[in-house]
Amino acid sequence: MPPSRQTISTTCPYCGVGCGVLARPNGGGGAGITGDPDHPANFGRLCSKGYALNETLDLAGRLLHPMRRQPGGGFERIGWDVALGDVAQGFARIVEQHGPAAIAFYLSGQLLTEDYYVANKLMKGFLGSANVDTNSRLCMASAVAAHQRAFGEDVVPCTYNDVDVADLIVLVGSNTAWCHPVLFQRMLRNRKERGAKIVLVDPRRTVTGQEADLFLPIAPGMDSVLFSGLLVHLADNDGLDRAYIDDHTSNFDAALRRAREIAPDLQSAAARTALDPDLVLQFFDLFARTTNAVTCFSQGVNQSAQGTDKANAIINCHLAAGRIGKPGAGPFSLTGQPNAMGGREVGGLANQLAAHMRFDAASIERVQRFWNAPQMATEGGLKAVQLFDAIKRGEIKALWVMGTNPAVSMPEAGRVARALAKLELFVVSENMLSNDTVAAGAHILLPAAAWGEKDGTVTNSERCISRQRAFLPLPGEVKPDWWIVSEVARRMGFADAFPYSSAADIFREHAALSSFENAGTRAFDIGGLASISDRTYSELVPVQWPLPAAGARKEPLFSQGGYFTPSGKANFVFVESPTLDATVSAEFPLRLNTGRVRDQWHTMTRSGKSIRLAGHSPEPFVEVHPRDAARYRLKHDGFARVTTRSGTCVVKVVVDSGQQPGSLFVPIHWNGSNSAFGRVGDLVAACCDPVSDQPELKATPAAIMPVDFKYQLVALAREPIDFPASTLWVRFPGGPGIGYLGASNEDPSRWRGYMPSLFGLQAVLAEYVDRGLGIYRAAAFLEGKLHGCLFVAPAESASCAAAGTRASLPLPFDFNMENIPTLSDMPIVCACFDVSLAAIGDALKSDEITDAEAIGRTLRAGTKCGTCLPELRTLVSAKNELHVS
Ligand code: SF4
After folding, report:
1. How far is the CA of 14 from the centre of ligand 1 (A)?
2. What is the DSSP string of 312-361?
3. 117 alpha carbon to ligand 1 midpoint, in Å?
């Protein structure tokens, strides 16, 4: 039980930057949140998501008790003993009847390392299957495979200090400003204070691109061509570090030959990447002459059918130029999730065994001895896409999903959801009572601890292990994931191997395994922490691996070579000339790219609770280039149907010249729980990288067409509403209630008939209908209290927007209206101070507002976390361009 009001240092549960957070519990289930000034990832800074964590701690919608699906549907509450017994007996029965290949775990980069460790140990050492994969497969499996091919082990060479002292920061396939905001601020500080240059290579001109000194709008999927061209340029222009190549690498000549085949000269590199040759030359020259160059890459590289080759093409250039193993130099994979790296350390991927060991005979035997395991998996298991395909074929019969939502996030997510319904045993460990995966037919729900309640460790992008500490009590019957897995293991007869009474017990064992018969053969070695006391674990400060030897100075990794290959040398990798597997056609002439928005996280189960965060991007949307908008008759702020071979969604249209012609972008966050027709995962093709089996989430062939709605609607309710099936709706948080934005073709007068199904038969209605103007407004009262309200008005009229504003509400509304984002407020640009785009637009009319700082002085926008500063600068430069023209 955490101390009730003491300030606790913990770690943010969102992105891979891994910022330190100070939480001050208020004794009522909430907490004050600030950045931890002593954490080396953020030194006190947080982004908009981090600062809004205090708005996500309530128990609304939480799963608080073990539940079991009843024969007729619905769930019944059961005790822990029954639930754990059902899970243990279910898995044992299926293993006995069908063998270990018929069971699987699907884990999450949100789990703590200790949770990951016990799940991986149970499956790979005691149930005899390696079918343990994770949503991190969708995030960074290509970077893992590239590290292993080049370095012999999944080791990220760089740290955030390198970003601070680099003179050139190349960002590839990364909207860093939105997806790693605090790290991006470190980059901007470096530029401001030291003059570092920032280059972005990305098909989309994102907010990050607006900030870059040089932006290369590369053709989708052609990163390997660009970096092959760079390798050729380095070779032909005296840019190689011959000493480093000779002393510390293998296969350079063959890799260079391959690079010449792919991009023999600058002109061909420019032609294949669809880039201006002058831009390509500027980039190549900048890289060639800058010793301190860091290349940061993330999902635009990894989430690709050529992701591993893209990453290796980048790494090849760093090895060739000797831009690695020095301060401010190296290829730097930025992880998406808070503990993707911890999962990798544990081995929580189907093709890893444990502690950075793979499925070679010696490692299997070593781990078997360490665990004293009775039934070791002897080969790799099914990776995410393969795993859900095997469920569809009926080969996997029992699945345990922990802390993730594959019915939303997997490619062809609708197909995945339907496959889940076939399972004989489908167990979900979750924070939330309902999500698309639970709705897909889960049999047993196990209530797992959420952020603020969990206790353990996470590892961020720079190999820094930090503590996530509990600062709230476990609510209801909620338990930590490691406890749940260990209890199941005990009930399966493995009590001796799962004796843990705390996360510290597990961490010590994990640390001991990392150094077991290691002798320098594996970089991941935290054996120095294997004997720490409970107290030291409790007080553990952030620590980076590999741990330095006692008294030794910490050198950059690979400064003296020392790679983890049999030869000790890094491998140059022959990359393939890229082709886009998912080819466009007359039927699907566009490419669908997916990704994140600034203020939401994954499927929004946590970030979606924050009113402040909802205002930045309140609705799912598709970004299209103006040329495509004209071609397909799409209106900015209208609606469009995006279709692929596997699914369809209907979303708002955003016309944006930062998008390339022929490409669409739709965010990943909306799903069946928070929207109708907003599930983009249904549309994404299950096309994987051949090396990493990471699915391509950036280039699915797609078609688009306009969709017209005659009416807009706004609703506020105390409980979720079931709209008529044809209604387009999206949910956002509304203080103690729920807000909805929507669109419909139903005549307003028909809503009268729907009201009982929306707000209940007992509701007393106060209604206003104007058939001539096409307006319907209603308030539903229960026991004299306002229960909900609905406003419908013509799509093109201002009256619908007005209906949603506080000022126009004609009712004694007792929702916390001050906190409800309204149509006229949205979008919110500064989440910290609720500053809307409209307010900034008004401020920009003044001649005195000439930069982002002036907006801050006037409206406070951008003066707290700074996450919106790139957007403010973009708005100011748009104004300045307008004045110039
Ligand atoms: Fe959390 Fe933001 Fe830091 Fe990422 S950058 S860890 S989301 S505070």
Report:
1. 6
2. HHHHHHHHHTT-SSSTT-EEEEPPSSTTHHHHHHHT-STT--BTTB-SSH
3. 24
How far CA 200 is from CA of 173, 209, 560, 697, 732, in Å, comes to: 8, 6, 30, 20, 33
Cis peptide upstream of residue 827 (ω within 30 degrees of 0): yes
651 contacts 622 by C-beta, under 8 angstroms? yes
Which atom of ligand 1 is nearest the CA belonging to 183? 5
Please, what is the average pLDDT of the chain? Answer: 93
Identify the residues whose C-beta falls under 6 Å from ligand 1.
12, 14-15, 17-19, 42, 46-47, 49-50, 180-182
Q: Which of 306, 310, 347 is nearest to 134 (CA)?
A: 347
pLDDT of 775 reads: 87
Residue owning the nearest CA to atom 2 of ligand 1 = 47
Q: Which two tokens stand for residue 349?
A: 């991927």
Can you tell me the distance from the alpha carbon of 878 to that of 863, in angstroms, rounded to the nearest whole number?
Answer: 21
pTM over 0.85: yes
Distance from Cα 426 to the centre of ligand 1, integer Å: 32
In order of 41, 457, 545, 625, 658, the CA distances from 629 in angstroms are 41, 47, 49, 6, 13
Q: Whose CA is nearest to atom 4 of ligand 1?
A: 15
* Nearest atom within ligand 1 for CA of residue 48: 2
- What is the mean predicted confidence (pLDDT) over 120-132? 98
- Nearest protein Cα to ligand 1, atom 3: 19
Q: How confident is the model at residue 313 (pLDDT cuts 50, 70, 90)?
A: very high
**Ligand 1 mean position, distance from CA 179 (Å):** 8
Task: Locate the ligand 1 atom nearest the alpha carbon of residue 47 and give its number.
Answer: 2
**Rounded to whole angstroms, how far apart are CA atoms 345 and 352?**
10
Question: Where is 31: in which H helix or E strand?
Answer: strand 31-35
pLDDT, tens digit (0-9, with 9 covering 90-100), for 331-378: 999 998 899 999 999 999 999 999 999 999 999 999 999 999 999 999
Burial classification of residue 332, based on how many CB atoms lie within 10 Å of its CB (0-12 exposed, 13-18 middle, 19 or more buried): buried
| Mean pLDDT confidence for 244-253 | 98
The Cα–Cα gap between 753 and 619 comes to 27
778/753 Cα distance (integer angstroms): 12
Give the whole-angstrom CA distance, residue 737 versus residue 749.
25
CA of 212 to the centre of ligand 1 (A): 21
Q: How confident is the model at residue 208 (pLDDT cuts 50, 70, 90)?
A: very high
3-state secondary structure of 308: helix
- Which 3 state secondary structure label does DSSP give 120? helix
DSSP annotation of 234 reads H
Cα 645 to Cα 173, 541, 641, 689: the distances in Å are 25, 49, 13, 19
Q: 12 C-alpha vs ligand 1 centroid, how far in Å?
A: 6
Handedness of CA 622, 625, 628, 629 (dihedral sign): positive
How many other CB atoms are there within 10 angstroms of residue 585's CB atom? Answer: 9
